[in-house]
Amino acid sequence: MSLKHEVYDLLVVGGGINGAGIAADAAGRGLSVILSEMNDLGSATSSNSSKLIHGGLRYLEYYEFRLVREALAEREVLLKNAPHIIWPLRFRLPHRPHLRPALMIRAGLFLYDHLAKRVTLPSSKGIKFGSESPLKSIMKRGFEYSDGWVDDARLVTLNALAAQAKGATIRTRSKCISATRSDGLWTVRLQDNISGQIETLQARSIVNASGPWVSSLFDEVISIQPPKKVRLVKGSHIIVPRIHDEAEAYILQNEDSRIVFVIPYEDEFSLIGTTDKEYYGDPAKVAIDQDEIDYLVDVTNQHFRSQISASDVVRTYSGVRPLLDDEADSAQAVTRDYTFEVDAPSQQAPLISIFGGKITTYRKLSEAAVDKLCEHFPKAGKKWTADARLPGGDFTDQLSLRKQVSKQYPWLPTGLVKRFVRTYGTLTFKLLEDANQLSELGLQFADGFYEAEILYLINHEWALTTEDIIWRRTKQGLRMSDQETKNLTQYLDNHFNQNIKTASCL
């Protein structure tokens, strides 16, 4: 694929949430942008989060008031701009007096309610747990407050789509292998991970948003001393069959002062996490260990009547958080705040490097980084993302959109309508196009999972592999058998091999 420009204003290295957010913001201000991601979009930290848009109640214990205030304000922005993949979620916090006094929790929740303006989310309150509660009977009282849920991997993809719509070039499976400065420009080489082909481009600026690889990019690609130290912290999650039928999530306190979330997940499951462990290996090889599984199972069983075991785990995932090394004593105490460093020697092309951050504040981080970048591009446009709906998010509420989709496609099963709306929003109409009956959606790979959706993801959302499709663009892997997964993999192999043969004949 040929490059659009001989010289780009900006190369973004890294296709996680920060890289995609920066690419979208910069492209929307009129800069020519290319994003290079060595794997799939959101394939590392950004698809392995706790999937929450939240202020971070526990961060108040570490006096992270600015971070919490900014994150609380961003909840409202993101709920408005992406109502298909982000929605409100109530949390219940069982009170355990020997861990945190009630007065301390009330004070924290008061700050949580008032540090930033709430528009859509209700305030916190004290609650009692009765005989119908899924918690053990020893837990009588607790608290309830609001935050938000997000499909983290889709948030990355939608930002990449937004960037593309503003003119950005998105290159997945494209690794930045070298970047050197000369004559006020960066000369960069990108290597296609599939074909091995190397292309050279020039850029007036670079943003290093490579997440866990932010420091190694300096060592291996740019050959500049990293300006900050990064502390890699592993967070792992387990997924089990639904523990309880309530709509609320639970936030559990543990004896080690950590907290664990138990979150309703994909209707039939509970998502439990996270852990906090120092990580020293290759971020690409991060995986949960048995101690982490046992830890999450134990904390859950301390609280719920319905007991689980390691054998109940249907899936695990782990991510490496590239946190700014603030020399905190423990991994859980390391700041989740972000910073970026600017390297812009006189008359030389600037480099901005992103350190730390959390998914809730990605838009603010992106806006601040592009503000700084635009000091070198005086003709760039103004800020715009605060009021911009992400692709597919141009509707009022999910219920109304489901009714609209059902009216236009009355033959579409109710469950599929619901899944499409909360995955694609109004992009559902692009996926379904002019289909008039279920059979026109093509091959069925699993219950409610049709060829039309697969082709949409390939043609419009950079999906190439089975993992891209069933774990990042959707979560259909939770419901697919091994044979169904193999069938999809075989289909993709045939599809791409046929395209290669067709292209070679042209």
Keywords:
506 residues, FAD/NAD(P)-binding domain, D-Amino Acid Oxidase, Chain A, domain 2, Helicase, Ruva Protein, domain 3, six-stranded mixed β-sheet, EC 1.1.5.3, FAD, glycerol-3-phosphate dehydrogenase (quinone) activity
> What is the CATH class name of the largest domain?
Alpha Beta
Strand element count: 22
| Proportion of residues in extended strands | 15-25%
What class do helices, strands and sheet pairing give? alpha/beta
Write the layout of secondary structure elements.
Blueprint: E1 7-8, E2 10-13, H1 17-28, E3 33-36, E4 52-53, H2 65-81, E5 86-94, H3 102-114, E6 125-128, E7 141-150, H4 152-165, E8 169-171, E9 174-182, E10 185-192, E11 198-203, E12 206-208, H5 214-222, E13 230-241, E14 249-253, E15 259-265, E16 269-273, E17 277-278, H6 290-303, E18 315-324, E19 338-343, E20 351-356, H7 362-373, H8 398-408, H9 414-424, H10 428-432, E21 444-446, E22 449-450, H11 451-460, H12 466-473, H13 482-505
Parallel strand pairs: 1-11, 2-3, 2-12, 3-8, 5-14, 12-20
Antiparallel strand pairs: 4-7, 5-7, 6-7, 9-10, 10-11, 13-16, 13-17, 13-18, 14-15, 15-16, 19-20, 21-22
Helix pairs in contact: 1-4, 1-7, 8-9
